[in-house]
Amino acid sequence: MHAPRQAEAGGLVVASSHATCPHEAVAEIAAAIAGQQFAGGIVFCSSRYPREALADAIARHLGGFPLVGCTSAGEITARGYDSDSLQFMGFPKGSFGFRVLHVSDIDGFDRDEARRDIRHLAANARQEARILGDHTSQVALFLVDGLSHREELLTMTVQDALGDIPLIGGSSGDSLLFNETGVLCDGAFRSGTAAIVMLT
Question: Are the C-beta atoms of residues 146 and 181 closer than 8 Å to each other?
Answer without folding.
Answer: yes
